[in-house]
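Lecture 7 notes. Example A: sequence first, then its structure tokens.
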Amino acid sequence: MKQTGSLIIATMIISIVIGLILQKSPDSFSQPLKKYEVPEEYIDLYREAGEKYDVQWELLAAVHRVETKFSTMSTLESPKGAIGHYQFMPLTWIGWSYGGSRLGELDKNDLVDITDLDLIQKYGGYGKDGNGDGKADPYNLEDATYTAASYLSANGASEGRVESALFAYNQSDEYVEEVLSFYNEYRENATVVKLDP
């Protein structure tokens, strides 16, 4: 009898937790965004970073949309180890010559500060200090946006090779197609909206 009661209580707790998670679903906006809608609060940042690295702002918006639903996901860490607003692997951020797993993760016990600009320069990483505070933090939206612009540019987007730049970002044809669908939509029909948390 005690086991049955404990099982019922455990099931109720799990149901409540799942309900709370679903309420704060990564796709939850006060009103769902239509495919052509871009949050107003990010446009200037996309444009500034895009101009600096010669990348169209619509491409940065599309990557941001696909990677973290405009930073509305409940966590900015993926199951595969990508982190921050634009979902970079830690070794892409700090530099692959630092060492770690072949998938781009740091060793589990490694406490290196990946926001350290000197380390990023030393190891050839892409992390950028977009807001001028002396750090390159993947969890800071300005830093992450400038880093995404730099990375896409370095991989051909500034020369018109958008598809190959996106494939370098995430080696998945489905990913490239998804980002391109938003990118093309934003270039043709972008509508700026307020993003309500």
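Example B, a different protein, same format:
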Amino acid sequence: MRGSIAIWHDKRSDAAEGYAPRVEVHVNIWRNSERAKSRNFDLLDIGFRLKEFRSLRTLSISLPFVVSEADNVTDLFEVMHDASTLSAIFNETLTPGGMQDGARIFAASNTETKRTQFYVARCPAEQRRLSRIGVGNDEVSVITLSDEFFENLRQRVGDHYVRLRIRLPINVQNGFVSTIKPKDSAFLSTISENEIVEFRLNERRNFSAAILEQLQARECGLIDISAVHYFLIRDMGVEMTQSHTSFRKMRRLEPGLWGRYLQGCAGMNPDRMLIYHWSSKPAAGEAVDSFTALATFRAYYTGSLFAYGAVIVALGAIGSAFQGLGTGLITMPGWSLGCSADRAAACVSVASNAMVIALLSAALYVVVRSRR
């Protein structure tokens, strides 16, 4: 499965020269603290501040995993129409204006100067398409924003912003996160798990053949990216061990500001989370060619108490069986292994203890193998 997001566009046939589509990309990866519960989700929020979109016909985002249901992709327009949430997302004091164009757009203004910074746009389900391309390990999901969506935006001059959320079940493999579990986890009540989170954007060597085929289409190409802001949000109980480069900023999520933004997201407690910020912003007029951010973490969590208890009981039983086996052999009359009538009780004891040892050893092997 390819591990890089790819963002490409399809231009209108009447696109004028000098108006190349250009966006600023914001990505939030929220790692769930309750990893063992498959009913919970990790979140990938991706936002686009559209700097130049007059020639855009469609905008496509490929994700390095398969989104099985369209309901797992939602628009965050309604959530953002709140002063606290809007300010938390952009880390500046912003005020949302009234709804416009039939509740499809609102202005985000600086609270102090009252100046409009950008417009936030709704992207309803009928104006985006979820599809899959590629086969096997190269299969990825693609979200495409339609020409109808951009046609609505072209009625107004200025930057426009759209933000989507992709909910990914924890037990689904994705191209960002890989974990290394200890091989002796069955013998531990508290498990230390090493985790690598690597975010890649427009890394061409990670593109599948299907994506490369899309980029070779007549009017398609990777969109110019004016800046990338990548945020990784983790529970405080998870320890960062290293990063490929220094992050721009690390801070605790502000208590009370993120509650509405994460409402309904199980396992996400904003009061106990840290946010790490990496960014890339080239010189004026230039574009971000590609972007990579890698960080490793060590997480501690409670292992399977059932498996741990079973292993402890089995080890105790094996020890007791070994003791009984040794005692039976030592006390066997004449130190002979023959089982005549006068040795029957000792033979039964030796045989039963040997069987217990064999069965419990096999069970321990199965448990340890299953926990790797």
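Note on Example B: The chain has a mean pLDDT of 81. The helical segments are 77-80, 83-90, 147-153, 209-215, 305-331, 344-370.
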